[in-house]
Amino acid sequence: MPHLLLVDDDDLFRESLGLNLIDEGYEVTSFANGRDVLAYLDKGGGADVMLLDWRMPNLTGLDVLRQIRAAGATIPVIFLTVLADDAYEEAALEGGAVDFIDKSRRLPILLKRLQLIAEGGRPSSEPEQVRSSELVLGRLILRFDTSRAVWAGRTVDLTLTEFKILTLLAEKAGHDVGYREIYDLVHGKNFVAGHGSEGYRANVRTFIKRIRKKFRDVDPGFDHIENYAGFGYRWTAQG
User: Domain boundaries in the chain?
Assistant: First the structure.
């Protein structure tokens, strides 16, 4: 199941929602304020989705979102709020949030939104191809039943989103994969968030940077994700 970050200064609400999400099978990391979650991300922490309270002391949810996006982090953000004014929703979406949910909505509604966002946004209209349980490519093993990557016998601790990107590159090993194709895989085809018509490129670069770092943590000489300047990336077929 996806890993969620839950950020809310209401201790009772945060604990109650966190326990409900854990009961549904999600991995949940909770924070009581914006500064703590920013510190977590700055240290290399990650997740598949962030649930972010709008109204918090010192740093509001919108402040947190703006700092996250300014740092190049691409984690999808869902705002949780009691504010019903359209102006708040517009500000959130313009800042790069992917959804805006009233705290009073029932848990099943939130769970459905989480499923759509964490698993790639929009369902594909293309028929699903039958895939074997694992892909072996030189020293790389991708285990699709557990969404785990193994490099040279050592597990690489990837998030679900990072695993999806790595799978795309590995299945097209030796071929160039464009920024837009990688971005659409994560957010759903033609999904737009961030700043400007080319903002998605920075998001993809951040994902690739994190994936490379995790591989280099287990193998400092890792160099199998190559840049194709101005277009995207490729997984080198050898090794």
Answer: 3-118, 134-235
Give 43's DSSP letter.
Answer: T
By the 8 A CB rule, do 67 and 38 touch?
yes
Measured between alpha carbons, how far is 185 from 77 in angstroms, rounded to an integer? 17
Residue 193 CB neighbours (<10 A): 19
With cut-offs at 50, 70 and 90, classify the pLDDT of residue 126: very low
pLDDT of the residue at 124: 41
pTM recorded for the entire structure: 0.49
Kindly indicate the confidence band of residue 100, based on its pLDDT and cuts at 50, 70 and 90: confident
Question: Could you say which architecture CATH assigns to the domain 134-235?
Answer: Orthogonal Bundle (1.10)
Rg (CA), the chain: 18
Beta bridge partners, 140, equal: 137, 151
CA atoms within 13 A on the CB side of 170: 22
pLDDT tens digit sequence for 7-35: 999 999 888 888 888 888 888 999 999 99
Just give the CATH number of 3-118. Answer: 3.40.50.2300
